[in-house]
Sequence to fold (922 residues):
Amino acid sequence: MGDMFRSEQMALCQMFIQPEAAYTSVSELGETGCVQFRDLNCTVNVFQRKFVTEVRRCDELERKIRYIETEIKKDGIALPDIQDDIPRAPNPREIIDLEAHLEKTETEMIELAQNEVNMKSNYLELTELRKVLENTQGFFSDQEVLNLDSSNRGGGDEAVTQHRGRLGFVAGVINRERVFGFERMLWRISRGNVFLKRSDLDDPLNDPATGHPIYKTVFVAFFQGEQLKNRIKKVCTGFHASLYPCPSSHNEREEMVKNVRTRLEDLKLVLSQTEDHRSRVLATVSKNLPSWSIMVKKMKAIYHTLNLFNMDVTKKCLIGECWVPTKDLHVVQKALSDGSAAVGSTIPSFLNVIDTNEQPPTFNRTNKFTRGFQNLIDAYGIASYRECNPALYTCITFPFLFAVMFGDLGHGLILLLFGAWMVLSENKLSRIKNGGEIWNIFFGGRYIILLMGLFSCYTGIIYNDIFSKSMNLFGSNWVNNYNTSTVLTNPHLQMSPNTSAKGVYPLGLDPIWQLADNKIIFLNSFKMKLSIIIGVLHMIFGVSMSVFNFVHFKRYSSILLEFVPQILFLMLLFGYMCFMMFFKWFKYNGFTSNQPETPGCAPSVLIMFINMMLFKNTAPLNGCKEFMFESQPDVQKLFVVVGLICVPWMLLGKPLYIKMTRSKNVSHVKHNGELTGNMELAEGETPLPTGSTGTESAGGAHGHDDEPMSEIYIHQAIHTIEYVLSTISHTASYLRLWALSLAHAQLSEVLWNMVLSMGLKMPPYTGAIGLFIIFGAWCLFTLAILVMMEGLSAFLHTLRLHWVEFMSKFYEGLGYAFQPFSFKAIIDGEEEE
Amino acid sequence: MVEAYVAPVVITAIWAFIGIICPFFARGPNRGVTQCCIMLTAVTCWLFWLCCYLTQMNPLIGPKLSMNEIMIMAREWGNEIKDTMDVVA
Fold:
């Protein structure tokens, strides 16, 4: 059978690699992505492993790359996207080059940043000074004469000023939010002897460290006396106000302003040149940065993996243990030889397959089509090693069951188009990195959506439902036989099958049912029977899958002790019910003259089933027979009796068999004269423990070996009760196929009758605009409610039907996934974060 | 007019062809998966069609129509309302 029938066979291998060739060999293995390494150094602390220094080196390089990336993002330069040309892990020479490059770029960036901060703070100071000079123009005009005098006596000599009783002042700039507090504080410390004049700056200034614009205010504080000046200066420091020396004479101020202006211009020039230089540096780096980033990631992954290896006692080679799919062994051999050849080593590395009793990881080789379905199954539980994989059948049964619940040609077409668009442009769409979680889910399931759309179109044709209208492709097979007077006098007329049915509509439901008032009664009967038939078949399929598992794991006794009673119980009771449904479809018709076979006499299948189980009889209507065929009561009694026998068969068969074989084995071993404690046995095998049989039995066997008999009885009782009850409950559970299909059809009809037909009934010309709007509303509701909500609902119910009703019949799901060392997986995984 | 049994035979033959003959033409690395999918598709789709066909083969009730609908049927589907009633025993 195909690859997906069961998970692949895995081999545990030991790898012997020469230390020189280790790096390149592991690099080759990472490119192939076929091996899962086991950690041979579990007991060793992370910081004491062999390649810790190399990992630290990689961390350093990653840090530098991250820093440069943030700088590039700050400037808004776009990083190129490498999809096709992914570089390989760097060899030692390239590593040194890489380190040198990154070191140089990083130091340059840091220097530039530092310079920029310095220049910006300079710029800020000069700007503030200029503002101070400009804004205090007005303050000094009235104080002009006085201050001129004071400056003539030695430029702001405080002692002289104080003696003369003149006012001194300080000028500066403060954040606008702090002004009021500042003013209050000054008032307090000076007991009202300070005069503060301030004016707000209109444009904000940029903070050099953070780059945020801040609003500031220019102030001038006039005071008298030395002590006050000191106090004022202390307050200014406390409020982070910057003080600037402001000359009091007008001419000095003018000169200072001119000076400041020139200096500002120069500084601006230097700043812009620095910016340009920085952009150039970043642009050159950005070309190579993504590929360097990938190279460093690969390097780090290689060293982490090398840390899992064990160094041989003689220090001659590295030993590693890994799981490899048996089919890929030759790929791994080739990778090892490539690695040795790249380094020029004469001593080859080799691979040694070893036997083991451990359970290998489960690996299912999937392609882009089957991966979605495999993910659906894995979400429930990873399959045990080498048990049958339900994902193979899910590829078709999942969309089919979805379509039974979703059956509408119109909505199916919408799904189909959506799925087809995603599939046809999947190359382009797979490059979208940050589409969001929801887009990733939809895109990952594109093949599922495509198939769901296809099957929904088919079931839509069979249900004859396109946006709640039916198509009349082949001509309806119901004819009206009433004459004119009957038609005109009766507002409603029911057609009788014996007079009006003239054949069967070949493909699907007859279009007349869409017009009928009693449509739901007819459809209920059809859809319920359909759901039960599909459900019973699905469950029989599930139980039959267990045979393949029993045969593979050589538990032949379970076939007779578990499978046979289970399938008999299911088929004799519920399979028989399906048979009754088919029989009823054939037997009762409107054209017969035999009274018991007319539609009025058709018995309810459900009532017959209940009577069968309870051994009851109901009296039939007049002229009708109770049973459908002659031998029915005897056949039914036989089936029920055999079904009842199956229950103790299931309950006691396996435990008694285990008991028998155990006592035989124990006596056999005692006969041999030795007692081995923990024998790894599965039933039906010889008592000699060997590694190879252990491999097969370890995966998928329950390992009943050490359990006491009471545990086995209890387990089997639980299994039996669970199975018997589940046959009934799961069969009824499949009726959700009917329920959701009914709900979908009704919603669709409501939407048409209440929304779109209103638009279609409007008067012409003005109605055109109204129809345009109403059509928009109808489309919105159809997409949101019928396609999205109903689609998600049907998806969920189908998933439940698969996980619970189908897989509980045979699936164990106790395995663990195969996670190979693959660069592709690592890089894709990091990109998702 | 064609015989009554032609349509089901044709449809069954189509699905039988898809389900039994087509799997032999599957090629490529995913041969097993393709064969399984084709067979399952044929079985499920045929079963679905079959249930629908059998339900309508011997209907137990007929559609209940309003006067309007009967008259539209007469006009659009060529189902003239006659003056005398066809009595079928």
In short: The radius of gyration of chain B is 21 Å. The mean pLDDT of chain B is 87.
